Amino acid sequence: MSQTTTTAALRREPRVAPGAPADRAIKRRRVLDILDAAGRDSLLLTTNTALTWYLDGSRVHISLAGDPIAALLVDRDGDHLVTFNNEAARIAAEELPAGVNLHTVPWYGDLHQAAAAVGSSTAPPLAEADAAVQLRAARQQLLPAESARYSHLGAELAGIMTDVLSAARPDTTEFELASALAGRVVAAGAEPLVLLCNGSSRSTFRHPLATHSPLGRRAVAVACARRDGLIANITRWIRFDDGTPEERSAEARIAAVEADIFDATVPGARLDRIFAGIQAAYVRHGFGADQWEQHHQGGPAGYAGRDPRATSAATDTVVLNQAFTWNPSGPGVKIEDTVQLTASGLQVLTVDPRWPVATVNGLDRPVTLQL
Predict the structure, then answer these.
(1) pTM of whole model > 0.85?
(2) Is 155 in a helix, a strand, or coil?
(3) Residues 38/39/44/48 CA torsion (nearest 10 deg)
(4) Which of 196, 205, 246, 237 is nearest to 218 (CA)?
(5) Domains and CATH numbers, the chain
(6) What does DSSP say about strands 329-330 and 323-326: parallel, antiparallel, or unpaired?
(7) Per its UniProt record, what SUPFAM superfamilies does this chain match (predicted)?
(8) C-alpha closest to that of 64 among 196, 193, 227
(9) Block means of pLDDT (10 residues each) for the chain, length 371 residues?
(10) 263: Cβ contacts below 8 Å, ≥ 6 apart
(11) Is the link from the previous residue into 331 a cis peptide, with omega within 30 of 0?
(12) What is the Cα–Cα distance from 222 to 217, expressed in whole angstroms?
């Protein structure tokens, strides 16, 4: 069977819930531990981040900008997913993990009120917001099946970036580049949550929403794609000339800032202390002391784009098998990949062997692709 035929055959297979039973059992145990510590009998999950994590990748959204169309009550007797009546058939057929009880409420009903009432306990459930810190800690250490899904997504997204950016030309517009990325991300079964692009005429913007401007001599593209709940983040640069000495110097120095961040991302490190190190790294590598203020620096990744962003107030502790996306940036430069901290060190997930790299502190890091 040819590769084309194999791919087509796979696409005809019906979708099934992506969750792995072994991973889900561990996640349920983690939530029960939260209930034990709080002295409560149930917990109501209502955000997309918490729901997709606990359900191990089920899609519980319709609009990417809207609230989830489901809520889940975890109690000591089981898991109860409540959704609107017009969503129930799809949820049951394609998104419902084994062992989760499905309940419905009319499309005009109160989803959270209905979910709070389906459990066996007469006491009100613990609200997700009241267990936000504990839930974030429960999400930190990725489990085997979700780590495999994340690695697969990262490699696909990196390959998409290589394919699309390699075909770009100076007269390609930012919108054309972003739309090509969007089409490929959706074709891969993922959701393009963020697509940014700027050409040489708009290189000062750190969050460059695309326009009709042509790319010109140099361009950057940023993509954040979600599949099975997990979000992979990547930034890549291209240019159509040799670049200036100043550009090449800044590119090397921002990679050195990132290398210092990677060196600090070790088990037991606290995010606020890593963040303090980031501030010092900008100065150490020849950037202004205020550069950390011009854009967020990234942080833990996974079921949220950053979970959480690293700041001086973030005291979460780094653990093994946790994922991160750090994204230091300076004037006209930025570097960003999704990585996972494993027992053998940092593993880059958003990697395509076709993209040019330079070795920085023993790790291959992407450089600007010259076309």
Answers:
(1) yes
(2) helix
(3) 30
(4) 237
(5) 21-139 (3.40.350.10), 144-370 (3.90.230.10)
(6) unpaired
(7) Creatinase/aminopeptidase
(8) 193
(9) 39 80 97 98 98 97 96 97 98 96 97 94 94 98 97 98 98 98 98 97 94 98 98 98 97 98 98 98 97 97 98 98 98 98 97 98 97 97
(10) 361
(11) no
(12) 17
- Count of alpha carbons within 13 angstroms of residue 297, beta-carbon side: 25
pLDDT of residue 19: 86
DSSP string, 74-129: EETTEEEEEEETTTHHHIIIII--TTEEEEEE-TTS-HHHHHHTSSS-SSPPEEGG
pLDDT at res. 11:
54
Q: Give the span between the Cα atoms of 286 and 336, in whole angstroms.
A: 19
Q: HSE (CB half, 13 Å, CA atoms) of 155? A: 8
- Total Cβ atoms within 10 A of residue 56: 22
d(CA 158, CA 353): 9
Residue type at 322 in one-letter notation = Q
Q: What sign has the CA pseudo-torsion 16, 22, 25, 29? A: negative
Q: CA 349: distance to chain centroid?
A: 11
pLDDT of residue 9: 43
**Conformation bin of residue 321: beta by default, left when phi > 0, alpha when psi is -120 to 50:** left
In the chain, DSSP finds a helix count (H) and a strand count (E) of: 10, 17
- Phi and psi, residue 25, nearest 5°: -65, -40
Q: Kindly report the CA angle at 259 between 254 and 265, in degrees rounded to 5?
A: 130
Contact 53, 74 (CB under 8 A): no
